[in-house]
Amino acid sequence: MTDDLTSDAAGRSDPVALIFPGQGSQSPGMGKLVYDRSPAARRTYEQASEVVGVDLARLCFEGDEEALSETTVTQPAVLTTSLALVEAMREKLAEVGRLWQPRLFGGHSLGLFSAAVAAEALEFRDALLLIIERARLMSGFNRDRPVGMASIIGLESSVVEAICERATVSPQDRVDVANLNLDTQVVISGDVSALERAVEQARALQARVIRLKVKVSSHTALHTQQAEAFTAILCDVPLRNPSRPVVSNISSRLLTTADELRGEFGAQLRSPVHWAENVRAMARHGVDTFVEAGPGHVLARLVKRVSEGVTAVSLADATDDPVPISVLPVRPPRPEGAR
Question: Which of 69, 109, 114, 157 is catalytic?
Answer without folding.
Answer: 109
